[in-house]
Write a structure and sequence with these properties.
single chain; 201 residues; mainly alpha; 71% helix; elongated
Length: 201
């Protein structure tokens, strides 16, 4: 019986990169480094090397692109938050300490320019702007998560402690890299522990 010849399979051309992903990656980098208002659609198109029609096929307006950027940042942030807290599910004080340590590390990383949601909210005063709505929802979720943690800590007024922790964290996001740098995590952990201890008295 004749053996089959081993003919190599034809080369398969690599799939073209996802245009939507490329646009979003490019816009996210520019928006975060330079601010949303400073970046025009034409620059995003140029940097992403796509046609203008391609952008509008995926994002009807610049506002839609900004909202997609924030939505992705939101998803990434909460995934990382969940990764931190799952290691301390049975130990509320350790969970709070780990969260504040992680946030301190975020603030101290090279190129950090603050919380994307706070940055965008500062640029858009209209509460009905789609990006501002996403930013507001992000902050409500942050406080909701802190409130659940504060109840597990046994705080007398968990909602108040949650608001205090949210303000502490947002302050770190806003100015921690300027004022504290690598010391941000240590300061956050100490302040968080002090707030938690005071809430139990």
């Amino acid at each position: 019986m004749a053996s089959r010849s081993s003919t190599p399979a034809p080369a398969v051309a690599p799939a073209p990169p996802d245009v939507r992903q490329r646009l979003l990656d490019t816009a996210a980098d520019l928006f975060y480094r330079e601010g949303v208002r400073a970046i025009g659609i034409d620059l995003i198109i140029e940097r992403a090397q796509v046609a203008k029609t391609s952008l509008y096929r995926h994002f009807r307006t610049k506002d839609d692109l900004v909202a997609a950027f924030l939505a992705r940042e939101d998803e990434t942030f909460w995934a990382q938050w969940d990764e931190v807290v799952k290691r301390h599910a049975q130990d509320a004080p350790a969970e709070l300490d780990a969260l504040l340590q992680w946030i301190g590390q975020r603030v101290a990383r090279p190129g950090y320019r603050g919380c994307p949601q706070l940055n965008v909210a500062a640029e858009f005063a209209d509460p009905e702007h789609p990006a501002r709505r996403i930013a507001a929802a992000h902050k409500r979720e942050q406080q909701r998560r802190f409130a659940a943690l504060c109840k597990r800590l046994g705080a007398r007024k968990p909602d108040l402690l949650a608001a205090q922790l949210s303000m502490l964290v947002d302050g770190a996001f806003t100015s921690g890299s300027l004022l504290l740098g690598e010391a941000a995590g240590k300061a956050l952990r100490a302040a968080g522990a002090a707030l938690a201890a005071a809430s139990l008295k």
